[in-house]
Amino acid sequence: MAVEMTGKYVGNLKTEITHGPSGTVIRTAAPADNNGDGSSFSPTDLVAASLGACMVTVMAILAARHDWDLTGTHWRVEKHMNAEPRRIGRLPLEIHLPAALEPRARGALERAAHTCPVHRSLDHDIEMPIVFVYDV
Questions:
Q1: pTM (predicted TM-score)
Q2: CA 57 to CA 37: how far, in whole Å?
Q3: C-alpha distances out from residue 62 to 10, 108, 115, Å
Q4: CA 124/CA 1 separation, integer angstroms
Q5: Contacts 24+ apart (CB under 8 A), 34-43
Q6: Which parts of 1-136 fold into alpha helices (H)?
Q7: Which residues contact 72 (CB under 8 A, 6 or more apart)?
Q8: Is the Cβ–Cβ distance between 131 and 94 less than 8 Å?
Q9: Structure confidence by residue, pLDDT tens digits, 10-46
Q10: Residues 120, 123: Cα–Cα separation, whole Å
Q11: Which pLDDT score, from 0 to 100, does residue 87 have?
Q12: What is the pLDDT of residues 41-86, one digit of tens each?
């Protein structure tokens, strides 16, 4: 199934991206370290954010099948850029999950997270250390 998205350049190193099915608009801006004002997500910020969102979404799909409660789950990702060539070099991700999850659930959720399409689609040269913390 294909999903269409459209985008347009609106000036001042900014774009607007529209999600076809919903009409939701996301705005991007070039980062301050690359001639922009950093006033919004940069395109590479969206890649980093997508990694966390995708992993947690895949985990939530599995949790729903087993009636595991992921209420309060949250994540933090950092985007580190390489200079030459300019590209994402590192995306350390920390996912915080409920402490009450049983060991069997924890293992299954962690394995599922690594199957997310964003994780599988990113270049293997990008370092992606992923830490699961059970403290929610």
A1: 0.93
A2: 31
A3: 40, 8, 11
A4: 25
A5: 34/86, 37/12, 37/13, 39/14, 40/14, 43/15
A6: 43-66, 103-113, 117-121
A7: 96, 98, 136
A8: yes
A9: 999 999 999 999 999 999 999 999 999 999 999 999 9
A10: 8
A11: 96
A12: 999 999 999 999 999 999 999 999 999 999 999 999 999 999 999 9
d(CA 54, CA 117): 7
Q: If you count them, how many residues does the chain have?
A: 136
* Structure token pair of residue 40: 């919004």
Burial class (CB in 10 A: 0-12, 13-18, 19+), 73: middle
Q: Which residue has the higher pLDDT, 70 or 1?
A: 70
Sequence-separated contacts (24+) of 31-39 with Cβ below 8 Å? 33/81, 34/86, 37/12, 37/13, 39/14
